[in-house]
Specification:
Blueprint lengths: L2 H14 L10 H14 L3 H8 L3 H22 L6
Helix pairs in contact: 2-4
């Protein structure tokens, strides 16, 4: 995924699907953390070490991104009415 696509997705998730930055982490960093976790199958501990956040923080932000992506997918993937 290139930076333009990632930026556009982050903007859509923020604007339409409730993903918000926190005081300490931008939406892009949340997305990169999520994508890293999924792409390499990283454990919470590996993500903690890579991004220098606590396990609780990692879990919370992964869940936030996943929730927003689930809302996004419901809008984008729609079955064709036969």
């Amino acid at each position: 995924m290139d930076t333009t696509t990632l930026s556009s997705l982050c903007n859509d998730l923020e604007t339409h699907y409730g993903l918000k930055p926190s005081r300490r982490m931008s939406i892009i960093e949340k997305m990169v953390m999520f994508l890293y976790t999924k792409a390499v199958g990283a454990s919470n501990r590996e993500v903690q070490e890579r991004f220098q956040h606590s396990g609780k923080t990692v879990s919370r932000y992964i869940k936030e991104v996943l929730k927003s992506l689930c809302l996004f997918v419901v809008e984008v993937i729609k079955p064709v009415d036969p």
